[in-house]
Amino acid sequence: MFAAMMKLHWSPRSPFVRKVMVAAHELGLADRIRTVRTVVAMIKPARELLPENPLGKIPTLVLEDGTILYDSLVIIEYLDSLAGGGRLIPSSGMARFTELRRHALANGFLDMLILWRNERDKPQPLPALLDAFALKTDAVLAALEAEIGAIAQGPTGIAQITLAIAGDYMDFRFPDLGWRARCPRLDAWQREFADRASMRANAIVDA
Question: Which residues neighbour 152 within 8 Å (Cβ) at sequence distance 6 or greater?
């Protein structure tokens, strides 16, 4: 049975892996993916992953024919194409670029949060770097709070998925950030989106 399935290098703690799995559920393709637990860390590369992804990063997707895809955006665009195309990422026009720009903001925010956490957890973090992360986070949250109305009016897509996951990730790794009190419109939207079956089926777990 597994020979006919795609293989996804996976971790329950990775927000980028979660993006792929939420997208797969939204597209009705989750039952075609076999997840393989793969532990990656900045200072401890997963040697078994390197032959398939020399960057040593997850998510990495191995197709039924052995073709390998990474990163999360590439994987989700592939899954979208399997489902007919244009469902999570518009196929053309300004709608496509708007969706990709919004995704870039949410995805870049996730990247920054992970870097912030890595720096914060060092024995001697750099105060100037922590201040820079905090300043950028304030700017991102202000931008998202201002645009969430327009984002919410659009169809479910990769930007909404990534943004909702970023909200959960802030709760998971930065419970003292207080972003929900600062961003009431974003908070209300995120809570509603986080209750979707695709999100609940792929909850982030520290395991």
Answer: 160, 189
Average pLDDT across the chain, whole number: 95
CB 49 within 8 A of CB 38: yes
Between CA 27 and CA 83 the distance in angstroms is 6
CB within 8 Å of 57: residues ≥ 6 apart:
40, 70, 71
pLDDT value, residue 206:
80
What is the bridge-based pairing of β-strands 60-62 and 6-10?
antiparallel
Q: What are the tokens at 71?
A: 């990163």
Token pair 């709760």: residue: 171
At 2, is the pLDDT very low, low, confident or very high (cuts 50, 70, 90)? Answer: very low
Q: What would the two tokens of residue 8 be? A: 């996804």
Q: What pairing do the DSSP bridges indicate for beta strands 68-69 and 60-62?
A: antiparallel
Average of per-residue pLDDT across 176-194: 97
The angle subtended at Cα 72 by Cα 103 and Cα 35, nearest 5°, is 140
Describe the strand order of the beta sheet including 33-37 as a list of residue ranges.
33-37, 6-10, 60-62, 68-69
